[in-house]
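writing this on my phone so excuse typos. first protein, seq and then structure
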Amino acid sequence: MWRVLLLCCLSFQSIAASRIQFATEASYPPFEYLDDAGQFAGLDIDLANALCRHLKAECVFHNKAFDSLIPALQFRNYDAVIAALNATEARSALVAFTDIYYDSSAVFVAKKGVYSGKVNVKNQAVGVQNGSQQQRYLIEEKEMQGALTVPYASYAKAFTDLKAGDIDAVLVDFAVAEAWLLLPENNKFEMVGEKITDVDFFGLGYAIAVNKSNKRLLRDLNNALKQIKASGEYKRIIMKYFHQ
């Protein structure tokens, strides 16, 4: 009997090892979103799938609220988080990060002609994603004092309220702002001011997060990331979304 149980356990471990459970928040194009067929899509999704192919593993994606991602990872509900997640010092105390895979910066988006040069945030309602570094920046950065921070579960809802005139501006990742502004229906809006690249808030860029105890997965993901960069596959993924 014990041999049967041992074989079952080994079989389960083999199956588990061939599957990586990724949590994400799929309303953040071009990094992660649901396409017209309801399937996960975006740069982060393509990147995760590429890493899984190199690891001979199956990627499984779960769509969760952004502010729940790190706590869920700490409780080991998932193996990893890939969600345009800034690798900051504060978050590194909670989870382990892979090598950086994309630089990040933030920018304000507002209706054209409302602001000249930069956003004067005093008494201005600024939409941000709840739990994001943009939210932390608005609350903690001295120059942002006086801003009325309006948190949203997703940036999709923040942009909807911006178009309706319910808020004055949105503070969001530069690449996300760029993708949103390329849509013809958003041609009455613009980026305002310079990119914000403060490493104290936005870290050195985006990375994949894993539970601190999962050193093997962290090593495997970093090795796979090096491989797809060396092969040119990483560059093809980036070019697909940004043509840079």
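second protein below, same order as before
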Amino acid sequence: MHDKLPTERLDSEDAVARHLTALIARDPRLAVVYERAGPFPPRTAPRGFAGLAKVVCGQQLSVASANAIWARFEALPGALDPQGYLGLDEETVRGVGFSLGKFRTVRAIAEAVVAGDLDFARVEALPAEEAVAYLTAHRGIGPWTAEIYLMFCAGHPDVFPAGDLALQKAVAHGLGLDAQPSIKQLIELAREWSPHRATAALLFWRYYAAMRGREGIVL
């Protein structure tokens, strides 16, 4: 029987190290994955409206493109405040690189925050599945966006974005599966790593990057 496991937020290298130790104790197969992946730091982003807007900004974009667009966006007066964002018109926001869909999604988020329908403090207090359900109940927020916000902005320790293609490929390769798991299959597989699913996701993203850089390994 395992001792009571830590469920602290993933907001420091020490926290990641403690979660990783507990994670490998739960699933010793991950020790080999970690040997190949190497150390990895926590990944953090702003909390609240600004953080969720940044996640939306980065959807389906390369890191470089997302960073460039975000730098222009956050320079807009009021852009990082929900009330301030509502004062920006479509032309201004799309002028920095937001698509129409992203402009509308962030506007819907801002409206929900201003109306009191989206409470980020409440989000952080909920268990993983409930937190995802709470966020995805708001227009324009899908499971991946909710999970990435919870991981990187809220530091939630027990979220695994099973819809992420890189994670699907990395888990299949790292665990020697016969085929790449579907989203549903990966959700079920990741339950074994609870309450450290976010650390497992960080581990497999790092593994994915390491394996892609190795000759003869195609992911």
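Confidence is low (pLDDT under 50) at residues 1-6, 215-219. thats all i got for now
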